[in-house]
Amino acid sequence: MTDPARLHVSPEFPAMLDRIDALADQLESEAAVAEERGFLAEGIARALLDAGIVRAGMPANLGGHEFSPRQLIATIERLSRHDATAGWTMMAMQHVTGTTAAYLGDVAAADLFPGVAAGDQALLAGHGTRPGRAVPVDGGFLVSGSWQFASGMAHATHVHSAIQVEGTGELRVLAMPKSQVELVDNWDALGLRATHSIDYRCTDVHVPATHTYLATTTTPANGGAMYRVGLVNMAAIGHTGWALGAGRRLLDEMRALVAIKSGTHNAAVDTAHFHAEFAAAEAKLRSARAWAMDVWRDVEETLDAGEPLSVEQGTLIKLSLNHATRTAQEVGQVVHRWAGTTAIRRGPVDRFLRDIATGAQHITSNPVVLQNCGKWLSGAGSQARWEFLDLVP
């Protein structure tokens, strides 16, 4: 039995990476069509789900693999290296499905996750910012609202949404059937085009109180110590892995271009200038990965000891994510500069450049979060604490 007070490190991790690698050719062959369609083909989505990508983020006592934070980072990194859109889709679903399973109690768990190990479970997509309105009624809430960026909604059975309780201002998160919301098919972005990150809305839908939880909770109803980092820091795990994987793929693509172009007439990749820039990009990405893993190693030790995270640890989680994201962008700029016309033609380089440009706009890596990290680290906000992505007195 898993000790819920300790950090769970899954023995399934090496096999998971092998299963992801086995899908590499299929992911690549279907990427262009998925972009045109706007979401992953059902076959590859099902293959990824069957591989256990979402299950990796779910509590062990419900049948999940419950990977540790660093295992989750490496899992999303590996998938995103093969396909950034598939990585983002599964990262988003893994996050909101896993946290829903962790933070909802027995009634909701029995309803939504009766047989995780056998694949009998809800799959969630949705958004946790810009909360909807929740009017208290007997047994629950009447929920109305409009939410954005529901990555993976094409493959979901249920939605995850933030709500604010009328009268108290309390922020909660709900799980409700996808059939109870209106989908707004408006996803048309530069990159991450196959993530189906559409908007959705509803009006006066009854949601049982049992299917909501306090958005700020760090006390899981299911699973072990990992879920004590809270909802926002759980999101940082997947986004960190995604940025590192997408950045790594671009350097891999650049290396493949060097093998093709080197020795040709006026090849830019044969210049000392390129060699220096490529080395610098490689060093930056490896450093960003090493630091992110060091931050999470420290967090894992704290969780395993049963201790609460410090404000500094929460700050470094957010800062290392921001750094990984911006580093992936910088790597992309180097590749774009030296890849020549390959960077402007349809193919992996073009696709990953667009995906990174879009993914870097996510709220978890925005400039205000970086400013808040600097405020605390510099001592200007030394008495503050984190509430979601805000530094508050």
TrEMBL record:
Signal peptide from the UniProt entry: none
Keywords: Oxidoreductase
GO molecular function, one term: flavin adenine dinucleotide binding
InterPro entries documented for this protein: Acyl-CoA_DH_C (IPR013107), Acyl-CoA_Oxase/DH_mid-dom_sf (IPR046373), AcylCo_DH-like_C (IPR036250), AcylCoA_DH/ox_N_sf (IPR037069), AcylCoA_DH/oxidase_NM_dom_sf (IPR009100)
Acyl-CoA dehydrogenase C-terminal domain mapped to chain residues: 238-366
Gene3D superfamilies cross-referenced by the UniProt entry: Acyl-CoA dehydrogenase/oxidase, N-terminal domain, Butyryl-CoA Dehydrogenase, subunit A, domain 2, Butyryl-CoA Dehydrogenase, subunit A, domain 3
The name this protein goes by in its record: Acyl-CoA dehydrogenase
